[in-house]
Amino acid sequence: MSAVIFFIAAIGAISGAVGVVVLRDPFYSVLALVAHLVSLAALFLLLRAEFVAAVQVVVYAGAVMVLYVFVVAYVGEESASLGERMRSTALGSRRMRLLASLAGGALLAELLISLLGTGLKAIDSYGAAYHPGPRTFGTPAYIGELLLTRFLIAFEVASFLLLVAAVGAVVLARRRGGLGEETVTVERLAPLHLERPLGTGTMAEGVEGRGVAPSARPGDGNGAGEPVREREPVR
Amino acid sequence: MSIAWYLAVSAIVFSLGAAGVMTRRNPLVVLLCLELMLNGGNLALIAFSRMWGGGSGQIFAIVVMTVAACEVCIGLGMIVAIYRRRLAIDVDELRELHG
After folding, report:
1. Chain A partners of B93 at a C-beta cutoff of 8 Å?
2. How many CB atoms sit inside 10 A of residue B50's CB?
C-alpha cells in the first residue's frame, strides 16, 4: 500500500516539476508547482513527517502560491511578447537550452551517483524504528519541543529573517516618485505652511517636499517623468 | 519504500529545477524553479531525518521553507518594481541593477 502511494506521489511530484519547467504560461507553471507541492506533502507523510507535511500544504501550497498567483496576474501579460521574442531568437536560444538541459542531466547523474552510491547501509533500509504515539518522531509536539529548546536560535533567526524580508518587500515594491503615474495628494494643513512663501529653504523643500506643487518650482531638474498635479499648492 | 527511492526523487526534482533556472528567461519562472530546487533539498533532508530517526532534518526543512518564503517575498517585490519601471521582464535583458 505504501509503495502504491509512494509511486503515485513521486510521479505527481516529478510531473509537476516537469510542468513548472516546460509550460509556457507562467500561470500554468504556478499551478503545476502547487500540484508538485501537494504530492511532495504526501511523500513527507510517508516519511512520517506529519507536521512538515501540514506546513507544506497550508503555508507553502496555500499562502506562498497565492502570492505567486497574484503577481503572475499582475505582471502576466508580458509573457506573450516574451514568447515571441524567444521564438525570434530561436537559434541561439535553442543552443543555450540544449546546453542547459545537458548540464541538468549531468547534475542529475552526479547527484544520483553521490546519493545512491554511498556506502551508507541505511539507505536501503526503511528508516529507523518508529513507534506511534503522541510525542513520537515528527508530531507537532515533538517539533515544537525541538524548536523551542534545541533549535531556539535557529527559530529566532528565521523569524527575524521573515521580518527583514517583509520590510524589504515593502521597500522594493512601493511606489516611488518620478514614475509618471504617481498621484500623491498629501494634505499639508500645518498652520505655518499657510503663510510661508516658496523658496524659504525649509527642510520640506530640501527633500523636494510633497506639499509643494511642481508647477511652483521652475527649473526643477527632476526630468521628464515629473507628474503634473492639478492641485493648487496649499498656501 | 526504502530511503534510496526518496533520495532518487529528490535528485530528479533538484536537477529539473536547476535545468529550469538555466533555461527559462522569465524571472517568475526562474523563481518557481528555485522553489523546485529547495523542495528537492527538503525532500532529501526529510528522508535522511527518517533514516536517522531524529528531528533535526525536519527542523532544517522548516527553516528552508522559511528562507524560501523570504526569497519569494523579495523576488516578487523586485519583479513588481521592474514591472513598474516598464522594463522588460526577461533575465537576459536585465543585466544591471542600477537605478
Report:
1. none
2. 26
Exposure string of A196-231, with b = 16+ CB inside 10 Å and e = fewer, is eeeeeeeebeeeeeebbbeeebeeeeeeeebeeeee
Is the CATH number of domain B3-84 1.10.287.3510? yes
CA of B47 vs chain A CAs: smallest distance (Å):
6
For the segment A176-204, the average pLDDT, to the nearest whole number, is 56
C-alpha A6/C-alpha A3 separation (Å) is: 5
Q: Which of A107, A128, A158 lies closest to B53 in CB terms? A: A128
Res. A89: pLDDT tops 80 = no
* Domain parsing of chain B, residue ranges: 3-84
pLDDT tens track for A45-68: 998 889 999 999 998 888 889 988
User: What value of ipTM does the predicted structure carry?
Assistant: 0.91
Per-residue pLDDT, A201: 64
A127 pLDDT exceeds 90? no
CA A92 centroid distance within chain: 29
CA atoms within a 13 Å half-sphere pointing along the CA-CB vector of A133: 7
